[in-house]
User: Which sequence fits this backbone?
C-alpha cells in the first residue's frame, strides 16, 4: 500500500487537500471520484513524508483514544454544542498528545469553513476511512451524534475481540519461549558437564546420548551462530515476501486453510467484514463505497479480493449475496442471511446479527483452543525435558548394569 497526496474540488466547489492510501494511483483516483471529488492533483507521497502524522506530538494515536473521542464528541453534539466548541474542548482534554495536535488542526479547518469529514480526511493515519466516511454520511443525514456513537461501539467491539485473542495467545507464546530457553540452557551449560563425565568413563555412548552430545557441540560452537543467522534470514525473507501483494494473498489464503487455526481465522474475518459493513450501511454510506472501505480494512488479502470482486459484480447489477456465495470464503449461512437482508430491506440489521453471532463463535473457539493448547504445551515441555534427562542418564544406567 502506498500513500498519495491529493488536491480535489468537492461538490460545493471548495478545494480540499489531503492524503489517502491505496494500491496504486488509479485505485486512489477511483476512490476519490466515487466520493464525489474532481481530482486536481494526485501524487505519490515520499516514504518519509508521513512520519509527522504517524507520531504527531511524540506518540502514536491508539484506537482507544479514537473511541473515547467519538463517544465524548457524540455526547457534546447531542447537548447542543457547536462543532468548533466540541473540538476545542476535546482537543484540550484528551490525554493523547498526538490526538490533541490533530484535533486542534481539525478544529482550525472546520472554523475556516471546511466540513468535518473533509478536515478529518486530511489525517488518514489517525482517522481511518470508515471513520471519515461515516462522519460524512452523518453530516449529510443530520445524525452526526448517532453516527459517532455507532463508531465508538464499532471500535470498542473490534478492540475487545482483538484483546481476547491476544490474551488467549499469551500463554502458548510464553510456554514456547520457556521451552526454547530451557533447551538452549541445557544444550549450552548442562550437556557439556555430562559430556566430560562420559569421556572419563570411556566406551561407546548410547544412540540418544550421542545425538544429544552432537547437538550440544553444534549449538555451543559456530553452528549456534549459523543457526541464528539462518533463522533470522528466513524470518526477514518471509516478512519481505508477505509484504508483497502476491505473497500476502498466498499467505492469507493458506491461513484460512490451516487445520484448527484456519476455521477460527475465517470466523474472525467474517465477524470483522459483517461488523464493518453493517456499521457503514447503518450510517447511510452507499453500498459500493462501503464495500471499498470494508475491503481496505478486511485484515485478510483473500477476503479483500473477494469483496472487491463482489463490488464489481454488484456494480453490474448483481446482488451482494451471489458473488460472496460463489467465492467459497464466506459460509453458506452468512450468504443466506445477507440474501434475506437484501430481500427484506434490513441488510444492516442482518449484518449486525451475523457479526454478533460470529463474535461469540470466535470467543468460543479461542476458549476451546486455549484449553487444548495448555495441556499440549505442558506435555511437550515435559516430553522434551524428560527425553533429555533420560538420554543423559542412559550411560550411567549401563555402567550400573555392568557393575552388577
Assistant:
Amino acid at each position: 500500500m502506498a500513500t498519495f497526496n491529493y488536491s480535489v474540488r468537492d461538490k460545493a466547489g471548495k478545494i480540499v487537500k489531503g492524503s489517502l492510501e491505496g494500491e496504486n494511483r488509479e485505485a486512489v483516483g477511483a476512490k476519490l471520484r466515487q466520493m464525489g471529488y474532481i481530482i486536481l492533483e494526485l501524487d505519490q507521497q515520499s516514504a518519509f513524508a508521513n512520519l509527522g502524522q504517524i507520531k504527531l506530538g511524540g506518540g502514536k494515536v491508539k484506537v482507544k483514544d479514537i473511541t473515547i473521542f467519538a463517544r465524548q464528541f457524540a455526547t457534546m453534539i447531542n447537548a447542543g454544542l457547536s462543532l468548533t466548541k466540541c473540538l476545542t474542548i476535546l482537543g484540550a482534554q484528551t490525554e493523547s498528545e498526538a490526538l490533541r495536535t490533530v484535533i486542534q488542526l481539525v478544529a482550525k479547518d472546520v472554523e475556516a469553513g471546511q466540513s468535518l469529514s473533509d478536515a478529518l480526511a486530511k489525517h488518514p493515519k489517525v482517522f481511518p476511512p470508515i471513520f471519515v466516511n461515516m462522519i460524512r454520511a452523518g453530516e449529510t443525514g443530520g445524525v452526526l451524534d448517532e453516527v459517532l456513537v455507532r463508531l465508538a461501539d464499532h471500535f470498542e467491539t473490534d478492540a475487545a475481540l482483538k484483546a481476547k485473542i491476544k490474551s488467549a495467545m499469551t500463554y502458548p507464546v510464553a510456554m514456547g519461549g520457556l521451552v526454547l530457553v530451557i533447551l538452549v540452557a541445557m544444550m549450552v551449560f548442562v550437556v557439556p558437564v555430562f559430556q566430560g563425565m562420559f569421556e572419563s568413563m570411556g566406551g561407546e555412548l548410547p544412540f540418544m546420548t550421542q545425538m544429544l552430545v552432537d547437538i550440544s557441540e553444534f549449538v555451543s560452537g559456530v553452528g549456534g551462530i549459523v543457526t541464528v543467522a539462518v533463522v533470522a534470514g528466513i524470518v526477514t525473507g518471509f516478512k519481505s515476501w508477505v509484504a508483497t501483494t502476491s505473497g500476502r494473498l498466498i499467505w492469507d489464503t493458506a491461513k484460512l486453510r490451516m487445520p484448527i487455526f484456519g476455521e477460527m481465522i475465517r470466523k474472525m474475518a467474517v465477524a470483522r467484514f459483517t461488523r464493518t459493513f453493517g456499521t457503514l450501511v447503518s450510517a447511510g454510506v452507499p453500498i459500493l463505497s462501503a464495500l471499498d472501505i470494508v475491503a481496505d480494512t478486511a485484515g485478510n488479502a483473500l477476503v479483500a479480493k473477494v469483496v472487491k470482486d463482489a463490488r464489481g459484480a454488484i456494480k453490474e447489477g448483481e446482488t451482494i449475496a451471489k458473488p460472496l456465495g460463489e467465492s467459497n470464503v464466506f459460509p453458506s449461512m452468512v450468504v443466506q442471511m445477507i440474501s434475506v437482508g437484501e430481500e427484506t430491506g434490513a441488510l444492516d440489521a442482518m449484518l449486525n446479527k451475523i457479526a454478533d453471532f460470529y463474535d461469540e463463535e470466535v470467543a468460543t473457539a479461542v476458549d476451546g483452543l486455549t484449553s487444548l493448547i495448555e495441556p499440549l504445551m505442558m506435555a511437550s515441555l515435559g516430553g522434551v525435558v524428560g527425553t533429555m534427562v533420560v538420554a543423559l542418564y542412559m550411560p550411567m544406567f549401563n555402567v550400573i548394569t555392568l557393575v552388577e
